[in-house]
Design brief:
Order of helices and strands of chain A: EEEEEEEEEEE
Structural class of chain B: mainly beta
Distance between the termini of chain A: 41 Å
Helix content of chain A: under 10%
Number of strands of chain A: 11
Oligomer: heterodimer
Largest sheet of chain B: 7 strands, mixed
Number of helices of chain B: 0
Number of helices of chain A: 0
Number of strands of chain B: 11
Largest interface: A-B, 26 and 26 residues
Radius of gyration of chain A: 14 Å
């Protein structure tokens, strides 16, 4: 089957660095995405990793290890506006899907940034 | 402006009264999908569509129907809504080119449905 695991909650202070981990299990893996969702809002795309390694975009970085079925989102210089839920999502073509690729989300990590 | 538009944003209805939530995208995306979001459960896929007239069940399809008669529209139909379908619903679209693996999904603003 398919599964994604990420912590349900993380707390940090402004200016700190936080890492949100994601482990996944799926067949036909293409890549790992991260989405941010503020309360009451729609998820918005942050990053995508198809290859092993670190991708950096400003204060946010995302890492993937395909051999470990593991990735993380690293948020640096945290700001109050970073308080949100963060979802990892795998794009995969599971063997049972009839050849169709899917975007499968984890349950999300709620990040609370405090002064 | 690239966008996914859902309507309505909020809906309160009674058990058994058929309803449709519309979704439209202006990016010529092949792939569209519906998710429901419930506390602690993340985004669970209801149905998805690879292109016109091609749809398939996601992880929680029971009680829902979809259609894809045009590329831009992907309505979600609840033939006989029940209280356990009270949830926040999101429509999303993305490209599907196999050579473009960075397929960002664009989400609509969500529809908060309450079934009483």
């Amino acid at each position: 089957g398919q599964s994604l695991e990420q912590p349900s909650e993380v707390t940090a202070v402004e200016g700190a660095i936080v890492q949100i981990n994601c482990t996944y299990q799926t067949s036909g893996f293409y890549g790992l995405s991260w989405y941010q969702q503020h309360d009451g809002g729609a998820p918005t795309f942050l990053s995508y990793n198809a290859l092993d390694g670190l991708e950096e975009t400003g204060r946010f970085s995302s890492f993937l290890s395909r051999s470990d079925s593991y990735g993380y989102l690293l948020l640096q210089e945290l700001q109050m506006k970073d308080s949100a839920s963060y979802f990892c999502a795998v794009r995969a073509r599971p063997f049972f899907s009839g050849g169709y690729n899917k975007l499968i989300f984890g349950a999300g990590t709620r990040l609370a940034v405090h002064p | 402006e690239a966008q996914v538009t859902q309507n309505p944003r909020y809906l309160i209805t009674v058990t058994g009264k058929k309803l449709t939530v519309t979704c439209s995208q202006n990016m010529n995306h092949e792939y569209m999908s519906w998710y429901r979001q419930d506390p602690g459960l993340g985004l669970r896929q209801i149905y998805y569509s690879m292109n016109v007239e091609v749809t398939d069940k996601g992880d929680v399809p029971e009680g829902y129907k979809v259609s894809r008669k045009e590329k831009r529209n992907f309505p979600l139909i609840l033939e006989s809504p029940s209280p356990n379908q009270t949830s926040l619903y999101f429509c999303a679209s993305s490209t599907l080119r196999e050579t473009n693996l960075n397929t960002e999904a664009f989400f609509g603003q969500g529809t908060r449905l309450t079934v009483v």
